Every structure is written in structure tokens, then in C-alpha cells.
Amino acid sequence: MNPTNVNLSNSKISQPIDVIFSSIEKDFIDVSEIITQDRFPYLLCLPAENVVALLDFTNVSPYEIWYFDEEFKFSGKGFSLISSKGSFRIQTRAKYIVLWNRESQYYKKYGAFKCDEICLME
Fold this sequence. Notes:
The relative contact order is 0.28. By secondary structure, this protein is mostly beta strands. It contains two helices and ten strands, in the order βββαββββββαβ.
């Protein structure tokens, strides 16, 4: 998978970053099947017709999860920090999700950005 460029932005600044874009066609997502590298963040596009999606983060950590609505506006964060016995799932109404590996150099450089929205670049 090749990285795609997006802009993270807030009222003061816009920050271009590379992401791995993945369009999801189902409402149950096993995140461990999507994660194939840990350098770039992932941008997941969830199905528009689904009201709620269920993401299974079992054995996927440490990740920071940024949620965006259908207009690409930031709506919150979540975390998958520790692998342990048992499953860990997150239910969300977000239409777009950015997954950051908290141990990557990319996260250390851009993860603290105060994001209000994300914009796909052409």
C-alpha cells in the first residue's frame, strides 16, 4: 500500500501528512487484519450506510484513534494501549478514523497536532 497525502488542520495551521488509506466495506472491522506496517497512520473510511461500526483492537496496541464525522470534522479520540488476554472492541459512529501507532516516529512528530478536521488531497 502506498501512502496518500492528507491535511490535518485547525483554525491556525494546516499540516500535510502521509496516511495509508483503507476503504472498509463492512461494519465489523478486525483492525489486526488491516495493520500491515507501523510507520504511517491509517485513514479508515467506514461505510456511509452504517450507523455504527465495531472495531476489534484485540492484540493491536499501542494505537491512538482519531474519530471524524462525515464532513471530516474531528469528533474525538480513543486509545488501544495494552495487549492483554481477552478482546478489546470499540463501537463508533465515526465515518473516518485515523489510527496512529504511538511508538512510531511519525506519531512522535505529528501526533500532538491539535486537529479540527482532515482534508483529502488530490
